[in-house]
Predict the structure.
Amino acid sequence: MPESYLNSEDASGEVLTDQTSPSVIPTESEVTVVGGGLAGLSCAVVLGNNGVDYHLLEKSEVPGGKVTTDRVDGFVLDKGFQVFLEASPMGKRLLDYTKLELRPFYRGLYIDSPSGSRTLISDPLSTNLGVRDLRNILNASDLVGMVQASIAYLRYPKSTTAEIFSQLPTRSVLRRSIAEPFFKGVLSDPELQSPISLTRSIATLFLKGAASLPALGMDSIPRHLASQLGDRLHTKSEVVRVSSKGVELTEGRKISSRCIVIATDAPTARRLVPGSVTEVPYRSVGYTYFSADERPLGHAALYVPSLHKGPVLTVSVPSDISVYYAPQGRHLISVSHSRGASISDIRSQLNKIFRGQSNSWEEIAHGDIDAALPALFGKSLALPNDRLVGQNIVLAGDFLDTPSIDGALASGVNAARTALAIIKGRGSTTPPRVK
Ligand SMILES: Cc1cc2nc3c(=O)[nH]c(=O)nc-3n(C[C@H](O)[C@H](O)[C@H](O)COP(=O)(O)OP(=O)(O)OC[C@H]3O[C@@H](n4cnc5c(N)ncnc54)[C@H](O)[C@@H]3O)c2cc1C
């Protein structure tokens, strides 16, 4: 397995360039994109496909923003539990799934059954086993609750997820063992305060296609996009000032531009362009990686605990999804949990869940991701549709759409559309060439 993806050739023969190599920052560029997360990268790719002279400035050493991966002693550690949902409409338009070598999770979920045993339930839309599993779980009061929840959603579409789930019976397995723990985990939202519209759109993507990991790590996604930018991507380049005429970097270097796309996190956008966006609260989450010499779960499925109380949100085994995530003979266990959870609290809950088996797991990494996901996003920010927040200044970023890979990619494509309208005068309704 390649230690790193940099300067290597992937299985499909695409040469992936070393994004840390110095590239010459110009003094002029038609469009300057600030921020090399998925939003900035997708914007840059679309600008390039439409023949625009652009440059992208990223303050870190590598592009990717929230989607980064560390490599430690042969283990591949994504920054927190992340999956790529193959049904992502923007993923389908912008990414080459074959080049990413996507490896799917099992279409199902490990849950705690009321009897206390860990049970695998399959996705009813992908296998008959799922229909059987669901029949065993659902009872008449669940069906009534589901109808009530659907009516509540139609009547109050701005409800929180917790409010809609409260329509299901209190003791329902569907609610307590599946819906609540699953969405607490995938939304990193232990209180389920996310709008039900987000939960619904994420659920739809999970049901429509596989949840996958690129074989060599989640950072294959930004690398795949970055490999299309060549020397127009400038890492270690932090923008400190923005005006309608261009940007200024640290050390006073300036680039004059006809259009500037700010594709940073919301607080940075607010600092660079005061008044551009209201204050956006963010959710934080923690992650811990362990290695083990035995596979703790039988199938390559996600486990969402509900019986033993504690900080753990999800447990998965990435090396069951792709063998490249761990050295031969070892297994990688990924645990997501609430921010600030102590390793002793995490271990204590895991020991109850895995009945002592986890005592022998070795800790590889443990930390928090602050400001991981915007808690306010999309239409609730009341921004203009074209995301124009000042003369020639356009915003991009997951907080404008949904806090997800698909949302970040979509925001970048939308920003590219507005940038094209500014520099080419084509009118903002002309669809840009995405590929
Ligand atoms: C722990 C976690 C788990 C997640 N799980 C999933 C999941 O399973 N599935 C899913 O679809 N989504 C998931 N997401 C969400 C998804 O990863 C993000 O929504 C998406 O990556 C955000 O991309 P972005 O480009 O909008 O922002 P960011 O990734 O934050 O990119 C912003 C970029 O701007 C750069 N920048 C900031 N300031 C400056 C400056 N002054 N000058 C230059 N550059 C600057 C930053 O360095 C960064 O690279 C998860 C996120 C996290 C954190």
In short: The longest helix spans residues 405-424. The chain has 13 helices and 22 strands.
